[in-house]
Amino acid sequence: MPVRFRPGPLTFSTGYGCFTHFxxxxxxxxxxxxxxxxxxxxDVADIFxxxxxxxxxxxxxxxxxxxxxxxxxxxTVLTQAVITGPDWQxxxxxxxxxxxxxxxxxxxxxxxxxxxxxxxxxxxEGGISIEVSLRDHDYRGPEAINFYPRxxxxxxxxxx
Length: 160
Prior knowledge:
By secondary structure, the chain is mainly beta. 12% of the residues lie in helices and 38% in strands. The longest helix has 9 residues, at 18-26. Mean pLDDT is 75; it is low at 1-41 and 156-160.
C-alpha cells in the first residue's frame, strides 16, 4: 500500500526504535490538499531515486558534517561515509576524502540504494560511489542524513 508524504526535509534519527517510529509515521495519512503537494511513494527508496540522472553541483563542508547539492536537491551527511572509486577507497574524515568528494562535482548519479539500518549508497558515473552509514554505531548525533528535495519536486517527506 502506498504511503503519502508531505514535501520537506527527510531525516533519519537514531535511538530506540527509530525506524519503527519512522515506519509508523509513514502509516499516518494526511488529508490530500492540492496546496500541500502530497504525493504517494511505495518505498522509502523511491525518495532517493529522484537523484538518479541528477548532477552533483556542489559539496559543502561544515564543521563535522558535509552537504551534497544536486541542482536543487540537497543531502546533508551527518554520519560516517565511505567514498569508493575504481581503484581507491577513502573514509569520510580522511585527509583525501574532501578531494575525492569534490572530484564528484559534475558527475551524474546513476543509481541509489537505500538499506534501512545499513546504508544509503549513491552511485555516480565513472564507477564512484558514496556509501553513507545508517548503522547505529556510526552515528555522531541523533541523525544520519537529511534530504531536501528541490522545490516543486514531488519527492521527499518530513519526519518529525
